[in-house]
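Below is a filled-in request sheet from our internal design queue. Each sheet records the structural input a requester submitted and the sequence that came back. We keep these sheets so that new team members can see what a complete request looks like end to end.

REQUESTER: design group, bay 2
PRIORITY: normal
MODE: inverse folding
CHAIN LENGTH: 125
BACKBONE (tokenized):
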């Protein structure tokens, strides 16, 4: 299976499962899940690298899908927004608590990713 066939298969699965807007809502949902699940796994297991691995795997899928939909420029902007959010969540932890900061940052990153991802079309920079 070539990468183009894989892209088409992913797009088809998203369209069938969540409708035409599926390709737009998948990256923000995955970003939210990557941050929250990654932190939770790291926190509950006391194995930080395992939480990081969860973030990388789920985040990698989000990057793949967003790049397919939004193009490289918006994907790079989205990546940096999430990295800044991840870093700022550590600073916010002292104010809001670890899970409070996690929720605020994850939600903010997901909203930004949603608006960076176009409603229709693909690879628009």
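RETURNED SEQUENCE:
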């Amino acid at each position: 299976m070539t990468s183009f066939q894989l892209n088409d298969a992913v797009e088809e699965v998203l369209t069938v499962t969540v409708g035409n807007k599926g390709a737009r809502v998948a990256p923000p949902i995955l970003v939210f899940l990557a941050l929250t699940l990654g932190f939770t796994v790291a926190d509950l297991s006391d194995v930080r690298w395992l939480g990081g691995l969860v973030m990388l795997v789920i985040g990698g899928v989000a990057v793949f899908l967003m790049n397919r939909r939004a193009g490289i420029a918006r994907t790079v902007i989205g990546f940096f927004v999430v990295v800044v959010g991840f870093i700022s969540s550590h600073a916010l932890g002292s104010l809001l608590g670890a899970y409070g900061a996690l929720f605020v940052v994850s939600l903010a990153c997901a909203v930004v990713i949603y608006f960076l991802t176009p409603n229709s079309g693909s690879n628009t920079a």
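SHEET NOTES:
- The two ends are 26 Å apart (CA to CA).
- The longest helix spans residues 72-96.
FILED BY: M.R.
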